[in-house]
Design goal:
mainly alpha; two-stranded antiparallel sheet; 2 strands; transferase; UDP-N-acetylmuramyl pentapeptide phosphotransferase/UDP-N-acetylglucosamine-1-phosphate transferase
Length: 270
């Protein structure tokens, strides 16, 4: 299918899913997805499932034949366990279980945090996708790392309206070329369709949407032919993830001209 048509298909699916999310938000069943964002405004995390479903379905539609099952696995599982973390991770007893240190501390106390369940699910899905698409052990390791690492990295950006979505749009647009470009054409359209609602602070992507989008982008990175390029990208993803434990991405972005303006573009004023 033409990549422009794939993008339109992803966008149409996302808008339909957002309409369903809006209807559910007003009902009692939508209460568990309601949150207050960084600016104190009420939002719903149902934008995440809307993006996860539309991005995954359109990615499967546009993926090369050998990666369709992998796209379904990583997008579907990352969205599912991300949604679980969105809901279960909001419970009071899970308040301290944030970040890698929080998950490890919970395990040390004999508890399994919702975040740890999410991590295990995403890594497992990434491993399955790697086995479906690669044969050499090193390629399996690189694919697993890129899918799981990018899923986590996009989620780390979801701290301000539109930030993760903008990063996803830029990454997907950069990956449109080549034989595997159809994999991200649909997710590109889906993300663009959800972005106005995210920037308008009516929805948030949450773990569900950000993890699913990131996992699909990671699968596209894993399709790059040159192993050295894949290894370099994985190194960058790991470095940024480790840095996030010590450095605030928001502070870095606010202090960096260009990034600061891009981050604020289209966002409501506090």
């Amino acid at each position: 299918m033409n990549r422009g048509l794939l993008a339109l298909t992803g966008a149409a699916a996302a808008r339909a899913a957002l309409a369903g999310a809006a209807a559910l938000t007003a009902r009692p069943a939508g209460a568990r997805w309601r949150r207050t964002n960084y600016a104190g405004r009420p939002v719903t995390l149902l934008g995440g499932p809307a993006l996860a479903v539309s991005a995954t379905a359109s990615a499967v539609l546009g993926a090369p034949a050998g990666t369709r099952a992998a796209a379904a696995v990583v997008g579907g599982v990352a969205g599912l366990v991300g949604g679980y973390d969105d809901v279960a991770g909001a419970r009071p007893e899970q308040a301290r279980d944030k970040g890698l240190a929080g998950h490890l501390r919970a395990l040390g106390e004999g508890r399994v945090s919702a975040g740890a369940v999410k991590v295990a699910g995403i890594v497992s899905a990434a491993g399955v996708a790697a086995l479906l698409t690669r044969r050499r052990p090193l390629d399996v390791v690189l694919t697993t790392g890129l899918v799981a690492g990018t899923a986590n990295l996009v989620n780390l950006l979801d701290l301000r309206p539109g930030r993760a979505g903008k990063a996803g749009v830029l990454a997907a647009a950069a990956g449109l070329g080549g034989p595997a470009g159809g994999l991200v054409a649909g997710p590109l359209g889906a993300t663009l369709a959800v972005l106005p609602e995210d920037l308008g602070e009516r929805v948030m992507l949450g773990d569900c949407g950000a993890n699913a989008l990131g996992a699909l982008l990671g699968l596209r990175l894993a399709a790059i032919e040159r192993g050295g390029a894949r290894a370099g990208l994985l190194g960058a993803v790991v470095a940024l993830t480790l840095a996030s434990e010590k450095v605030s991405f928001t502070k870095v972005i606010e202090a960096t001209p260009g990034l600061r303006e891009l981050d604020r573009l289209g966002r409501r004023q506090p």
